[in-house]
Amino acid sequence: MKRFVPWLAVIIALLIIAAVLRQCRNAGAANYQTAMIMRGPVTQAVTATGTLNPVINVQVGSQVSGNIAKLFADFNSQVKAGQVVAQIDPALFQATVTQAEGDLANAQATLELARVNGKRTQELFAKKTSSQADVDQAMATLHQSEANVKIKQGALDKARADLEHCTITSPIDGVVISRSVDVGQTVAASLQAPIIFAIANDLTKMQIDANVAEADVGVVKIDQNVDFTVDAFPMETFHGKVVQVRNAPITVQNVVTYDTVIGVSNPDLKLKPGMTANVSIIIAHKDDVLQIKNAALRYRPPDATPVETRRYCD
Asked: Which of 127, 140, 199, 224 could hold 174 in an S-S bridge, CB 3.0 to 4.6 Å?
């Protein structure tokens, strides 16, 4: 074994010298790559992300508070304009209407009595058996009774309107995409109208609300073609057109974007509300132009060799 030790050291030294020479030769050589020049299409596009939404999406709420007695629609239900979709328990509102009708009848009776008293007082004043003060008092009472009738009539109209609002109808033809309440649940409309249903008018026509960066919004125009994909169908490309570029800025963590509305046709109902779309807005497109790969345009001359490698080779 002692005889082979010197030879082993010599072999290792030769390998090290060969590796150093190879590295120096590679460092001094030009680093480039060749590619064939071809013809084909070239496209310039602006990329963004957005959310698919129905073009018309109406939130149906309640103007009155109460318990949900009945629901006549559910998720994915087809509804027509004017169709009853929910019913709030009308017992309390019916009682309010009955009370308002009684108050109005009482006010009307008081008005009739005030008219009779006013006429009688005027007749007595004509016969010099009543004073002017009595006539003025009778006329004032008559006018108060007339005003009270109007007040009670307004209260009755309001009570009837509240009773009608217990029956909730669909304002448009469409599909129910969201239901927020169940039978027996109490809705409170004291501060704002609670949402019961969300109804989309036509899911065959949808739109994408895409957030385009401020650096790219200058080249986005109406009627430009758009290609986009969704995660549900990663191998399929859908198409649309830019229909609106809104001027209102959206600022999130000092990043400014602009809402760009893209019209989308959805005849087979594959696309669903809320899907995330990866959007490419086609800015420019040319067919049959010369194409060169970017790798062929990158060249590092020998002088650009890293400093550490040059020092080691020297």
From this structure: 199
